[in-house]
Design a protein that fits this description.
Serine Threonine Protein Phosphatase 5, Tetratricopeptide repeat; Immunoglobulin-like; 6-stranded mixed sheet; 1312 residues; CHAT domain-containing protein; 52 helices; 9% strand; 6 domains
Length: 1312
């Protein structure tokens, strides 16, 4: 292998380079993929080669999930791979390995990998065909996201692919969306190639000059030069026909191509299908003759020539008319050049008003279309010199230009004085000319647009009323109405958002469609389409109509597509508008690709728009929203950092413009993002910076005279779910509360739903302060209660309010309010599980804590049945959350998928916050919320769904005790209890002497004693905790159930205890932190709970009942076949006794499939569980965002957040032979219990599991001993024996060595 080029960073070791060579076709490299390639193709490499590759300097992007190489190293690596493909056939397996591990990637990335492989393996035809399919999707199906993909992929694709005609076509088609993309040079081009993509291209002028028998194409000059419009490709392509000779000519941007055509007629055909015929020296072309321009340029000398003024005026007017008609910037630049030369030569506008008016027009158009602030400022200077002319027609134009230029300067500078000057100028000229004989439509149109902008910046002013009064008085003639139609449509949309007039949107739509029907320029057509998009978005915000959203998206895409590429500012603003619609659509329809496109468009707009313009600040604020939405979806902290940067840029640019709303919005966004960053990373400086941002935002609110801001309140609500015990959090809460303490004038019975976040934020901060006054607690509780009980408040906000209300009631020791608050929350939590993702994990954790407290207070009120229902719903929903799948939802999805989709869409719509609060106010909240209730009612009307998302009544729950009592243990700060569920009903056993603090301390003592953080256990300490557990919890329970251990020192030895077959059965259903402790081992070394009952566990009563039902009624099903297939998984090669365990079970069980090494991945396991009703796992466990899951790989790399368990997937047995390792991230979580409950909820009847804090050998010995009792002499597996088998093995281990038994004491049985 040759040495890497010197231009690359320092190369990694040789082994890493071999791995990188084999993997160079992959777009990303996960740990599992790297390992599989090493083991299958490069077995001679040590495992260290993987780490060398992962951390080398050739890695351009690195996340916990994958790495990607820098594009610069790929040609070197791929050249080596081509050599290996020719000499070592085994390397042809690499594509299959990559495909195996990348099945879940996006289709675009899979396509890139396939194209790369085809190119390197010599199948250029397939590579071209695959690329052509993507090009077809971009051009014919308008899948604009592929443009961004190709722009990125072109940095990585092989040069052989990029040199094809298809790649050239793709690059030119993508340039509409990615202007900086260089198409390169294609080997051959025909007009058909251009025609295939012409529909997505803009048009550009191509210079044409006939000189004798030659035709010059390109950058030509001369009196007879002209231009034709051709598709905007690089290079330009045109077909030249002279006589019988037809040739395709390519013209690069800066060159002139000479084509011999003879003396006869010549025709030019473009890729768009246009044909231009040149009969003589002057071709027929859309551009004006250039000779007047050349002549006039030469005639403008150092002295003013009044005789030249009419020709100059006419030429500039001609060029401007041509530019408007064809959207051609060449004509506009020529007009600007003439204007500048005339002004520089001393042609004063006040002396030649008509010339001055045309000059101002040219400067204004240049400033607006090409984003030149200098041209706009010059427009103002020129127009001010012409304002005194008596001609009314000129006065209308000059007044309109002067006011419009001042407005656009405001947009560039954010200096509000320019906007007020614009209003004053336009109002003055309108009042002066309104009663005159000339049409004032243009003047009125500019004033209407200025009023709309003023309303957006300062909505408290009566700008819209003034605008509509003006339109009613001034737009009488058809000409004036036509001229002002687009602006009036924008006014009507703005008034609808502010006031909700029922006819405003219909009238605005009519006006915009009238503009679209006229033969206007592409810029005007694009603006009309943008107005239509805003009309349909307003309708969407009104009633959540998916059709309105789709129409808005289609209209906005159309506007962005037809907008000329030369109109840079309009194009950027339209893409910004498109970004906002895509962000909304992504939220409503869960279309992740829409959100990614929204981010790209907002980034592009932010980079393209003028640096300090209000447009750019608005685009950056929307970029923040897009990135924040993506963070909530993916959890990527890098998106948060980008969002913070976007907001900080707005804060910096708006520092000198306090009257604008952008600074406040940016400060609030920055604060919210920094709070979320603290929650994700516990980065203390981020929290301090968040407080600084929110303090500044609050100061802005007070300075502007506002009492509160909804956005500010919503950001504060992110703080509510933080643990207030850390010093930095307590300090932050205290400071933010001090900013609010003097602003308590809001009546809790607020009148508008949009003020709910304000009221709730006030209450939420009080609820987490350490020592608030009693009166403050009362008022905060009243506020939270009113928010929680209002039906027109978004459900997620009501859920937050219920949590605040419940927690405040706990502090006040108001049991009835605790229960009522919890019931409000419990009614909404199932909908959160149905409709949301991991972004609400903090709310669900708060709900789980409240559920235990609510159960305790329900017991206090003498209603243990309600307490049982609370805890049961908690257990069922928590298991569903952990496994990422809710059985009821999956069942509904199969029965009525459309209803599920509607429920999710409507939930998302209810929680969308419009960019404009006026749009929020226009929602008929009552009917919108009622629609969600109607959908839930429709679901419950379906057969077998009458209790959908509702808690199970106690009378049905007691069925779980048909074969023995179930003990539900609840630990709350208020009290700790055991709910005894028997066939007779539910009774309460208060656990006297047990507090939540004591229980938590003893749980931690037990974990420390069993050696999670060191190699050896502290047996005396562990047995001390277990004896405490016996005395305080288990003995009282067993006594109440008639299974009491004899008290005192006269305990029987193990020989006197009952035989397992004669002992009664009982089930434990623990809540935190009971779940950490082995209740079945409570007692002393020789005398414990195992001697008096066969103990099993269950995550919920419904899970136990369901497992029992499946086991009894599975006769004739595959699960009752004599031989039940088992899937054996060894997820970690570094467990030698685990290997022994797998081999022993594989020999004993009749039908097994083994996954180990690189095949032992979460994806492979999930794919095979459906065909293997029995499952045995050997490896480690982990946590991902609070969700337990299995680990795969010696390094413990996370395979995926969830294993992919879904209800109905399970079978008779799941044995989780999990080894816990030193330094686990599960130390202070009841992780193993949560993992086992996931398998029970997924439908496994019997689950044996929980982490074993001990050695690999102990876990293997335990598993083999259990299987010896599960297997019959004929080799058949009997999962129904699981409880007794585990009970017998544990008792035997205790008899042999009680201290050694602690190594696997936590292993329990879940099931019937």
């Amino acid at each position: 292998m040759t040495e890497p080029p010197e231009t690359l960073p320092p190369p990694p070791p040789a082994g890493a380079i071999e791995l990188a060579t084999a993997l160079s076709i992959a777009t990303r490299m996960e740990p599992e993929l790297i390992r599989a390639v090493r083991l299958r193709l490069l077995p001679h490499l040590a495992v260290g080669a993987e780490a060398d590759l992962w951390f080398c300097d050739w890695v351009g992007a690195r996340t916990p999930e994958a790495i990607a190489l820098i594009p610069e190293c790929l040609p070197y690596l791929r050249a080596a791979l081509v050599d290996k493909l020719a000499t070592e056939p085994r390397f042809r397996e690499v594509m299959g390995i990559v495909t195996e591990f990348h099945r879940g990637l996006s289709p675009a990335l899979l396509l890139e990998e396939q194209i790369t492989w085809d190119s390197l393996s010599g199948d250029t035809e397939s590579a071209t065909e695959n690329l052509n399919r993507a090009l077809h999707a971009l051009v014919r199906e308008n899948r604009s996201g592929l443009a961004g993909w190709f722009a990125e992929a072109s940095r990585r694709l092989p040069s052989e692919t990029l040199s094809t005609t298809t790649a050239w076509s793709f690059a030119n088609a993508a340039r509409t969306h990615v202007p900086s993309l260089d198409p390169g040079t294609a080997p051959e081009l025909t007009l058909d190639t251009v025609s295939s993509i012409a529909s997505v291209l803009g048009e550009a002028p191509l210079g044409v000059l006939r000189v004798g028998e030659a035709l010059l194409l390109g950058k030509v000059r001369g009196e007879d030069a002209a231009a034709v419009l051709v598709p905007d490709t690089s290079p330009r392509v045109v077909e030249v026909t002279a006589g019988d000779t037809v040739r395709t000519v390519r013209v690069d941007a800066a060159e002139v191509v000479r084509v011999v055509v003879g003396t006869g007629p010549v025709s030019l055909r473009t890729g768009a299908g246009h044909v231009y015929v040149i009969d003589g020296p002057l071709p027929v072309a859309p551009q004006p003759d250039a000779s007047p321009y050349e002549e006039l340029s030469d005639l403008i000398g150092p002295e003013v020539d009044p005789g030249l003024v009419p020709r100059l005026t006419q030429a500039i007017r001609h060029l401007l008319d041509e530019s408007r008609r064809t959207d051609d910037t060449v004509a506009l630049r020529r007009a600007l050049t003439l204007t500048q030369r005339a002004l520089d030569a001393g042609y004063e506008p006040r002396d030649f008003p008509e010339l001055g008016c045309e000059a101002a027009e040219a400067l204004y158009l240049h400033g607006v279309r090409l984003g030149s602030r200098k041209s706009l400022e010059q427009t103002v200077r020129v127009a001010q010199h012409v304002t005194g002319v008596p001609a009314p027609e000129l006065s209308v134009r000059v007044g309109a230009l002067l006011g419009a230029a001042q407005r656009e300067i405001f947009c560039h500078t954010a200096d509000l004085s320019h906007l007020h000057r614009s209003v004053d100028t336009l109002e003055t000229w309108t009042n002066r000319l309104l009663s005159g004989p000339v049409p004032v439509g243009r003047l009125v149109s500019e004033l209407l647009d200025t009023y709309v902008l003023l309303h957006e910046i300062q909505p408290r002013q009566d700008s819209l009323r003034r605008a509509l009064d003006l339109a009613g008085a001034a737009l009488e003639s058809p000409a004036d109405q036509e001229a002002a139609a687009p602006a009036l449509a924008r006014v009507l949309v703005a008034r609808y958002k502010a006031e909700g007039g029922p006819d405003d949107l219909d009238q605005a739509e009519f006006l915009a469609e009238t503009v679209s029907a006229r033969r206007e320029s592409r810029s005007v057509q694009a603006e009309a389409a943008a107005v239509l998009a805003s009309v349909h978005m307003a309708r969407f915000w009104r009633d959540g109509s998916p059709a309105a959203l789709e129409t808005a998206l289609r209209q906005c895409r159309s506007a962005a597509r037809i907008c000329p590429g030369s109109d840079r500012l309009l194009r950027a603003r339209l893409r910004h508008a498109l970004s906002d619609i895509l962000r909304v659509r992504a939220a409503v329809l869960s279309e992740h690709k829409d959100l990614d496109e929204a981010v790209r468009l907002a980034e592009w707009a932010g980079k393209t728009l003028p640096g300090r313009s209000v447009w750019r600040m608005a685009a950056l604020l929307d970029l923040n929203r897009c990135l924040l939405d993506r963070f909530r979806r993916t959890g990527s902290v890098s998106d948060l950092d980008l969002a913070v940067n976007a907001s900080r840029e707005v804060v910096s640019h708006s520092r000198n413009h306090p009257d604008l709303p952008y600074r406040h919005t940016a400060l609030v966004q920055e604060g919210e993002c920094l709070i979320l960053r603290y929650k994700a990373t516990e980065d203390s400086p981020a929290l301090g910076q968040a407080v600084d941002s929110l303090r500044s935002a609050r100061e802005f609110i007070l300075a502007q005279g506002y009492a509160w801001s909804v956005a500010y309140a919503s950001a504060l609500l992110e703080l509510y779910t933080l643990d207030p015990s850390p010093a930095e959090v307590a300090s932050a809460l205290a400071e933010l509360d001090s900013l609010m303490v003097h602003d308590d004038d809001l009546d809790p019975r607020f009148t508008s739903p949009e003020s709910a976040p304000i009221v709730l934020a006030q209450a939420a901060l009080v609820s987490v302060l350490p020592n608030p006054a009693s009166a403050a607690l009362d008022r905060a509780a009243e506020k939270a209660q009113h928010v929680a009980l209002r039906g027109d408040v978004p459900p997620l906000l009501r859920l937050r309010a219920g949590l605040v209300w419940g927690n405040l009631a706990i502090r006040q020791n108001r049991s009835a309010d605790v229960v009522l608050g919890y019931e409000t929350v419990a009614a909404l939590v199932p909908l959160v599980l149905l409709t949301s993702g991991p972004e609400h994990a903090d709310l669900l954790r708060s709900w789980e804590k409240l559920s235990r407290e609510a159960a305790a207070h329900a017991i206090e009120l003498g209603t243990p049945e309600r307490a049982l229902e609370f805890l049961e719903q908690r257990s069922v929903l928590q298991a569903a959350w952990r496994q990422g799948s809710f059985a009821e939802v999956n069942r509904l999805r199969e029965a009525a998928p459309d209803l599920v989709a509607q429920l999710r869409q409507w939930w998302a719509f209810l929680h969308l916050v419009p960019t404009s609060l006026a749009s929020w106010a226009r929602r008929p909240q009552g009917s919108v919320a009622a629609r969600l209730d109607q959908l839930v009612a429709a679901v419950r009307a379906l057969p077998d769904f009458d209790h959908f998302l509702a808690s199970m009544p106690t009378r049905q729950l007691v069925a779980a005790a048909s074969e023995g009592p179930v003990v539900v243990l609840n630990a709350a700060a208020h009290r700790c209890d055991a709910l005894l569920v028997t066939r007779q009903g539910v009774s309460v056993l208060p656990l006297a002497g047990v507090s939540l603090v004591q229980l938590s301390d003893n749980s931690l003592r037990y974990r420390l004693a069993t050696g999670y953080d060191r190699r050896q256990t502290d047996a005396p300490e562990a047995w001390s905790v277990l004896d405490w557990l016996r005395r305080r919890v288990v003995e009282p329970v067993l006594s109440a159930l008639g299974m009491a251990l004899p008290p005192g020192p006269g305990l029987p030895d193990s020989a006197a205890a009952g035989a397992p077959e004669s002992l009664p059965r009982m089930w434990w259903c623990p809540t935190d932190p009971f779940a950490v402790l082995p209740l079945h081992l409570a007692g002393r070394r020789r005398d414990n709970a195992l001697h008096y009952a066969v103990h099993s566990y269950t995550s919920s009563l419904q899970a136990l009942t369901a497992a029992r039902h499946r086991e009894r009624h599975a006769v004739g099903s595959p699960l009752q076949a004599p031989v039940q297939p088992m899937l054996l998984v060894l997820a970690d090669d570094d467990l030698p006794h685990g290997n022994r365990e797998i081999e022993a079970i594989g020999r004993a069980v009749l039908d097994t499939q083994v996954l180990r090494g690189e095949r032992a991945t979460g994806a492979n396991v999930a794919a095979r569980l459906g065909k293997h009703p029995c499952f045995h796992f050997v490896g480690r466990a982990g946590l991902h965002k609070g969700v337990p899951h299995l680990r795969f790989g010696a390094e413990g790399a996370l395979d995926q957040p969830r294993l992919g368990l879904r209800p109905g997937l399970g079978g008779p047995l799941a044995y989780l032979s999990v080894r816990e390792t030193e330094g686990s991230d599960l130390v202070f979580e009841n992780d193993g219990w949560a993992l086992a409950t996931c398998f029970q909820a997924a439908g496994f009847d019997h689950v044996i599991g929980l982490p074993v804090w001990g050695t690999d050998r102990a876990a293997a010995d335990l598993a083999q001993a259990v299987y010896d009792r599960l297997l019959a002499p004929d080799g058949l597996l009997h999962p129904e024996r699981s409880a007794h088998a585990l009970h017998h093995v544990l008792r035997q281990a205790l008899a042999e060595s009680p201290d050694r038994a602690l190594l696997f004491a936590a292993v329990v049985h879940l099931g019937p």
